[in-house]
Amino acid sequence: MDHMMGYRRPDGSVGIRNHLLIIPTVICANQVCSRIMQLVPETVAIPHQHGCSQIGADKQRTFDVLAGTGKNPNVGGVIIISLGCEVIDPHELAEAIRPTGKLVEVFDIQSVGGSVKAIQYGTELAKKMRAQLDAMTPEPIPFSELIIGVKCGGSDATSGLASNPALGQAADLLIAEGGGVVIGETTEIIGAEHVLAARCATSETADELYHIVGRFEKEVERMGADMRGGNPSPGNIAGGLTTIEEKSLGCISKCGTAPIQGVIEYAEDIPRHGLYFMDSPGNDIECVSGMAAGGAHLVCFTTGRGTPTGSAVVPVIKITGNKRMYERMTDNMDVDVSDMLAGTLSLEEAGQRIWQEIREVAGGKLTKAEILGHTEFSINRIGPSL
Amino acid sequence: MAGPIEAGADALVMDAKDHVATAIKDLQAGDTIAFRIGDEVKQLTLLDPIPFGHKVAIADIPAGTDIRKYGEVIGRTTADIRAGQHVHVHNVEGIRGRGDQAQSAG
User: Which residue of A52, A295, A352, B73 is 20 to 30 Å from B104, comparing CA positions?
Assistant: First the structure.
């Protein structure tokens, strides 16, 4: 396969999926959004806990993640549903998404007349918009327009030995095609930041990397706890990982060997070409949601312990180097590179296997997480609730 | 990476500077395992059972040593560790992100 299949958006961006996204601006609108998703096939809602009692940078982060998810090129149309009295302004949110040129509709539950009427109104709207999206045809697009996130979760010793270095090979292949790669998980480069800093394209980027890691580590220290048990998690420890440093050194190989061109904020637009670092937590759902909000088309996710994580708007490819887990959780895994540890699959072959899967998924093949309907979504939070 | 992984290997050493090998099979106390460091194949008799994915010391390591895997420091030993013993949270602690120590220190 020498191209992917994409939907060219009016702003020039390209989606490898054509989702109709239903965004609640606030937790109070979650139920209405989830019911519409259940009633109209091929729609996806992103219920979340935020949108009210938030101020300053915390409110801005919620706004940016909701707007970014709406702007993700895999989304063809957006319905924004507000309660009507929250701090996130639904019309401002719509204005942030409209420059993409995609279909955007907004209404609030209080004006429409309560939950039942809002579900009826939203269902009719969703059916009409879905029909418009279904009339669109994907076209062949070069891989140079693809942006992938690389993530690991539920790690064990096999992650650092096999699946992460193999994913790194695939990341290098995409960058060689002219595409973009984003790596995140600031918490999970603690103890390995010097290795990544040495690969930064400029000294400013290296300084920024040290700065964000230092800030995260101070925050952990302020909580007064040894990281162990939180990160590495109990599952990581059971899988043989002893410290955050060991985990980090295993994590970083998943982004390959290209120079790091810059550090971007959580949910910030990801540049289209080359490798970037997104300042984000290691938490699987918050990190993947931040990458999706930044415009990643798909996420490659390595795991040794096994995790079903998907995303509301991006396909998530699961890759493992742990044969026992692969056999136990085949339902959730897309790519098995565990033969690397048996010595019968080379690093280069494993990288090619992942690259092939990336190309097929970008060409329309569904991931296990998509087949199973995993649409996890979570917004990283900065401040307390008021 | 330490280069190609050999078929049938028991444990992997990632870098010549490493103090530990990672078991890629469930290994029992008393087993003699072979592992490769660069071009050299070494043998070691295990003093503890080493589960798949866990680490075994390939040299005697005194308490208080900065311990290496991937050629980089992954933490510090909290006890004397003998070659062949299990290396994990009971005898190694992280150095970074230690809020417990930051508070007791200040």
Answer: B73
